[in-house]
From TrEMBL:
It comes from the Bacteria. This is Uncharacterized protein.
Length: 58
């Protein structure tokens, strides 16, 4: 029985995330903050774009 590559990659990623959280919680918190800031910036950009479209793309 062969294990699909995606499943192995997922487990490796989970182990890495747990390792980072356990060994350096402050750095892990920084990574989470960076991720949320990126998501927030993307949402703001989409909002500005949609407002621009709703205003007639002026």
């Amino acid at each position: 029985m062969a294990v699909p590559g995606k499943k192995i990659a997922f487990y490796v990623l989970v182990v890495f995330v747990l390792y980072v959280i356990i060994t350096d919680p402050a750095k892990a918190a920084d990574y989470v903050q960076i991720g949320f800031e990126g998501i927030s910036s993307a949402a703001k950009a989409i909002g500005h774009f949609m407002t621009w479209i709703a205003d007639g793309a002026k």
